[in-house]
Amino acid sequence: MLNSILLQAETGAAAQGSQWSFWIMMILIFVVFYFFMIRPQTKKQKELQAQREAMKKGDKVVTAGGIYGEIKEVQETTFIITIAKDVTIKVSKDSVFADVADAQQAAAKEDKK
Questions:
Q1: pTM for this one?
Q2: Residues 6 or more apart whose Cβ sits within 8 Å of residue 70
Q3: What is the DSSP string of 32-93?
């Protein structure tokens, strides 16, 4: 009888320890997930948003659909982009990226200075 009581007490203590280890592991998994997945993505989104806010008339851009053009007019949430002579389109700021070739040329000019 005494053996069964001691055995139950030991399994109860082991269950408490495993419960704490479960919560510690869950917290560690969340921390790792945050630092390797969530934080870099939010940092990248902030940089992209800052880049879009810095775009101005005359910048060369590429839309999410792959259309190359030059910004003709900047509005609150959209850009008017010239894609050919006398052809303009209105696109959301969220679907526009800086033209990589244009960015490389600008970087090369800054390096020469």
A1: 0.58
A2: 58, 59, 60, 61, 81, 82
A3: HHIIIIIHHHHHHHHHHHHHHHH--TT-EEEETTS-EEEEEEE-SSEEEEEEETTEEEEEEG
